[in-house]
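Fill-in record for Glycerophosphoryl diester phosphodiesterase.
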Amino acid sequence: MQKQFLAAIYLWSLSLAFGCSDPSSRGASREHYLSFENVSDTKAFFTKDADWSPMVSAHRGGSYPGYPENAIETFEYVLQHTPALIECDISMTKDSVLVMMHDNTVDRTTSGTGKVGDLTYGTLKTFYLEDASGNTTEFKVPTLREVLEWAKGKAVLTLDIKSNVPYEMVLEAIEATTSEAHVVLITYSLAAAKKLYSMDSELMLSVTLRNEAEWDRFLATGIPKENVLAFTGVSERNSKFNEKLHEQGVCTILGTLGNLDQSAAARGDHLYSEFVKNGADILATDRPIEAAKIIRE
């Protein structure tokens, strides 16, 4: 049975047993949800084994026409089409509210202007999100807590914590919303990975592991392998290196966002299947719906 549907079947059985209504306000299919009771379930799911089936991670939530990046409505739109990890970005306002925003300014992605860190949340709430073509939508910038609450029972979030955001505040929000089983924290250095692990040894981490030297340095940190998804970069890794990680039960994330997505759009979406055949378990992509369709075939 395909591994990504096990959690969905679990959620379906709960809703039958307890009469729960569909938690999606926009009709995403239950079979596209990822729902876990605890972090142990999440770690078991993301262990590379014979039951693993490839999946996608929607970069910045998966922007599409009419659906801006880092918007809950966009996350739901993607889940109407495919199970997915939802990669999204945490920034902080002037009054220390954690919000979902990639850039240092709001100029590119909203109807407003200014640096996120110079704006209060009250001001940010007056802006509307814009899609990649600059079209203004009816959607607003969500807070981290709103996204964490939304994700429970639906998706696993891979959270990109921007440099102006204290780790303590992110962990407090995760604990307050009891969403530990639905988050993976992105790190860009082993020092960051070690710090987060020291602060909460249960949470899953995305760690950049692109070659054997980086793998050996990771092993020296003492972070358990079951805590980790291996981000192998934005260019293809040697298949033997992917196999080495697989032998340890570690799932790999290949960043197709950027050049590899552009190549697939130009040369044919069949390239996504080739990335998977080469050992990529999860494709972190700006084209999650297109990529998922191909790798499920």
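KEY FINDING: Residues 6-18 form the longest helix (13 residues).
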